[in-house]
Amino acid sequence: MKKRQREVRLMRAGIQLAFFIAAPSLFSTAFAGIKSIFLAIAAGQPVEWNSFLTVTAVLLIFTCFFGRHFCGYACAFGSFGDAVYEGFSWIRMKCFHKKKKPALSEKMVHGLQKVKYIVLALILLSCLTGVYGKLTGTSPWDVFSMLTAGRLPNSKYLVGIVLLVLIIVGMCTQERFFCQFLCPMGAVFALMPILPGALFRRNREKCPPKYGLCKKDVRRIWISTATQADPANVFAATHVPQHAREKIFTLEQLRKNDL
User: Fold this and answer.
1) SS3 for 191?
2) DSSP secondary structure letter of residue 238
3) What percent of the chain is modeled with pLDDT above 90?
4) Residue 127 CB coordination number (10 Å)
5) How do residues 80-138 score in pLDDT, each as one tens digit?
6) Residue 75: is it exposed, middle or buried by C-beta count within 10 angstroms (0-12/13-18/19+)?
7) From CA 238, how far away is CA 113, in angstroms rounded?
8) pTM to 2 decimal places
9) In sequence order, what DSSP letters do the residues of 199-218 get, joined into one string?
10) Cβ-contact 213, 247 below 8 angstroms
């Protein structure tokens, strides 16, 4: 079992490294597409299709049908956070002999996961009000994109550099710190209705009322399975209530009995 887990982790790390080298700007490009829509609206201009929107559309469609694998495997910022966390954990274990990793309480994690929606709302609001153009140099992911492109940011990006350093500190202490709590693109993905083919098939099945499984519970269960079963997707914002988990197990058992 451990060997299999090690192989999966190495495979995932290899995919992350390949995307990090080949397409480090996917995150910034995708979010630029979202911002371009709101900037056009603020300027009273029609939204014109551009390369940013093409990347955004492809990622949104992919996420609708296959889940948030982009965040876990292809996002350079997420991959960088994984590397920072694993590296810091290794240093803690080898140098300070501390095997227990620092972790926030579950209640605090669920509370902090809502912050990314606030970040998304503030950015889009700044685009609509025309403030965004005055915030040049404050974006930590712009600084990150410059670094991955081999360019050093100048003094105009001082605020962005400071924010990036603070995010890196958070990455050291909490797995997927940025992805869980601050990523605006992650908020966009989380707000999307995820409707895979498997879910359509499950909804078409006849479920007797006595089983007590509603469509809302099915959706929550699928999102939990798609995002929490994979260690790459620990940033899922959807919380699945206990009663929903109990219902799916009860339904599966009843179906087996019927067969």
Assistant:
1) helix
2) P
3) 38
4) 22
5) 999 999 999 888 888 877 777 777 888 899 999 999 999 999 999 999 998 988 888 89
6) buried
7) 9
8) 0.70
9) HHHHHHS---GGG---HHHH
10) yes
Residue indicated by tokens 């700007």: 25
- Tokens for 183? 């990523």
CA-based diameter of the chain, in Å? 69
Q: Which residue has the tokens 């105009």?
A: 156
Q: Two tokens at 239? A: 């919380």
pLDDT tens, residue by residue, 205-255: 444 444 444 444 444 444 444 444 444 444 444 444 444 444 433 434 434
Residue 229 is encoded by which pair of tokens? 């079963």
pLDDT interval class at 193 (50, 70, 90):
low
How many angstroms separate the CA atoms of 143 and 145, rounded?
Answer: 5
- From the list 62, 116, 64, the residue with the least C-alpha distance to 235 is 116
Cα separations in angstroms, 31 against 155, 187, 218, 246? 24, 11, 30, 37
Residue type, 84: V
- Is 159:71 a contact under the CB 8 Å cutoff? no
Which of 86, 72, 66 has the alpha carbon at shortest distance from 27? 72
